[in-house]
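Sample intake sheet
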Amino acid sequence: MFALVGLEYYLSIKQQKKLYHGKDFLASSVIGFGNLFVNALTKVGIFYIVVICYNLTPWSVPHTWWSYLLCFLSLDFVRYWSHRISHVQRFWWSTHVVHHSSTYYNFSTSFRLSWVQHLKLVFFLPIFMLSFDPMVFIIIHQLEILYQFWIHTELIGKLPKLIEYIFVTPSHHRVHHAVNDNYIDKNYGSTLIIWDRIFGTFQEEKEQAIYGITNPVNSFNPVYLVFHAWGDLLMDIKKRPNMIWKILFESPTAWERGGNKK
């Protein structure tokens, strides 16, 4: 991944594109290394949960070639909905906002993953309960995560129509990371873009994306980038304790735009 980051940086300089910013890249890298440390702990936990569910359920999906396909479709479907929910409710947005906080869009942006993003494991319980072979689940899960890396770039344009129709591409994901009015809350797909087409959240890339969040953070402090939304959330609850449920699960976009107007 770092080799590809180096290549992208070289090509951006050669093509005179300002795709990287020193402090922004450093912040993304520190957040990424922090996430690697957290993952070292949580992935072991995830594996044990999968094994426990596999042993406890009276059913199981046999380890065959089609079980990989079924696991991929099931997991990608759930990833679409967990991602979508994390954009429309402030509590879950707080576990995801760091990924969108950069005003740059490059391979290193994929490193910006919240250190508390695994709270969203609750959405994956139905997949655990399907009782796939643990090795099938872990392989598919890891492939889904690795897929996210290459779609964070401006150097890859639109791909052949069939690929663009079925899979998430850099073009689709640029839309997802943008704050343009037509692009906000679109293209939630993880590996397959067909879920967005089915559930009405697809948006084709037409204009240049403007990256970041609607209420910019204006900081390169990795700890602040990861936790600033939690601080805002707790402050709002402290000010309006009688509206805690609404604050936790209202639209983060509406809240950010409201803060921006103030």
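Comment: The chain has a mean pLDDT of 91. The radius of gyration is 19 Å.
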